[in-house]
Predict the 3D structure of the following.
Amino acid sequence: MASFSISPSSRIRQTACHEKVVALGVKGFTVYNHMLLPTYFESVEADYDHLVKYVQLWDVSCERQVKITGPDALRLVEYMTPRDISKCKLGQCMYAPLVDENGGIVNDPIILKITEDEYWLSIADSDVLLWAKGLAHGLGLNVEITEPEIYPLAVQGPLSNDLMASVFGDWVYDLKFFYYKEFELEGMKFIIARSGWSKQGGFEIYLNGKEDANRVWDIIWEAGKVHNIRPGCPNLVERIESGLLSYGNDMTLMNNPFEVNLGKYCQLDKAADYISRKALKAVEANGVTQHMQYMILENEEGIRVQPNSDPLAVTQNGVQVGSVRSSAYSIKYQASLAFTIIDAKADLSGNFEVVDQAGTHFKGIISNEKWEMPA
Amino acid sequence: MASFSISPSSRIRQTACHEKVVALGVKGFTVYNHMLLPTYFESVEADYDHLVKYVQLWDVSCERQVKITGPDALRLVEYMTPRDISKCKLGQCMYAPLVDENGGIVNDPIILKITEDEYWLSIADSDVLLWAKGLAHGLGLNVEITEPEIYPLAVQGPLSNDLMASVFGDWVYDLKFFYYKEFELEGMKFIIARSGWSKQGGFEIYLNGKEDANRVWDIIWEAGKVHNIRPGCPNLVERIESGLLSYGNDMTLMNNPFEVNLGKYCQLDKAADYISRKALKAVEANGVTQHMQYMILENEEGIRVQPNSDPLAVTQNGVQVGSVRSSAYSIKYQASLAFTIIDAKADLSGNFEVVDQAGTHFKGIISNEKWEMPA
């Protein structure tokens, strides 16, 4: 797709630090949870190069929180996911697919256990608030469900530990992956988690209100100068190289978790009642009809694949057997990479063909090297 | 907000006729129901000028349908809205706010009654699919809820009657406002409704699948040449002049229908059970604490208001009393117009002040001339 401008409207909300990222030269946006999300500053490639070497500050306000409180909070959270949330400790975060009655993925949030009767779902791009509210009302659960004024910032990159320690103290070195701590600074109270949508190491900071987000941005920015800090955002190349799935791109309500390598987050025999048990048990018993595959796309003239909008067809021997969900040229692997969903009957050892929107033909080969998965 | 590019991804779906609107020179997009929606072609002003004189063809695929079928279909639809849907006839469309248990607006679709046990909700920008599915599951209703492969096109403008009649027959002249008819053309079956998101007159055509949408686009385009047809899209200036509210801009889950002039769509004593009865009865009894006002914004140097992103503060005597939800310079009224939501205690006869994102100061005056409402 060529470049088109995005028109302003209140419906597409600005992030907490919108003015800062604009002043710092953001060039592209996407829309995520009805909010702007920066997509690149200098270029996706230059941003990538910096991200894997130094440290970046990301305004990820669009990671909206669905806050569930009340005596039935755990019951509702458990009901929405096949993952066993009863094992989640205070201070812990759990990545968990939310799955509907047909086995379809509704979202794939990180769940934060705040107290025994308060959970935050840090969501991907779909209105989980409405899904949770609908279920809770229909089931008569005693919960309150809101989207609080929480605006996350992310600090990502190999120098993130040193930067965060310089601002918040050496305890951050010991913070375990997917655990968080509550912290107080200059009268502001917020949560710091070791997490984030890259594999370069880093943290997510859940700020209360736009003002706090801007104050903490300034503090981190100032301290980051010695670490060559830059503004950043989730990076398409880095996340594909790292095997990080994106809801809406790589999986939708039409996919079940087993199809997209999320089976390990499904404890189908967990004690708590959950909506997708019957559907997922059937998938487990019958096997999947399609599955995610990591594909390398080759072109004889060396043309690189572009990021795709609508899914591109994947064919084998002239027959469509799947689609490309996300694609990018990998700097690390010096190859065009794609997340694809392929018919389970297709011959994975054979060749595939993809034609991108520019009409360029690629030969597709399934990669055995599994890009890693989130934890 | 300055102009920024929107980055491609499968998550932001392309419309049925995306390639056509690109070839025809679309310049801006927004994202609506996780799908691209054109925002202008030549310019918002030039598009407006053409729309009010001739006829335009709009690719509004982003008007996604939530299809509810089954013995409990009417029961679920009734449950979601305070409007009395029992009165809806076969072949009729009804504009209806969907309202939650707190009285907050979830969406404001047009509801189409297809059969006695099939309704389509032609939705604004929020995941009504998840809301409806959550409620139905929790309440144990016997319904199936899907997003079918329906891709609407709109034909809008004063010449739309003649154009549509030339393609589909003279019966379209007699089609009543907010009624539809099923039609068959060259083996394609689809629905034609007299409706659309402008006040210039027109139709919405609900096509089955992207291929049919492209075929019908071509047929209408060819027939429209004698009527000076152009590609178009919902026009910010026209819709504000016409008093057409936009969900997410002018109202959100934080607003009840009475606050935003949608009281006439609330039959609080309707026979069917509905989720918002208690909350809306309380609003009716206690009155609203804020209400939508149409405001004219004046600037001494004659500077025109720009479309706003995040809501701008409206102050009176230095105190914030509300916010601007949508704004544009009206060509018809030669004035800067804004939809605002104002504290019910504010003095509507007094002056207000608005400072836009460029820092321009405007004096705000409530307009007594009510721009019309949808039917």
Notes: The CA atoms of residues 197 and 234 of chain B lie 6 Å apart. The two ends of chain B are 33 Å apart (CA to CA). The longest helix of chain B spans residues 209-224.
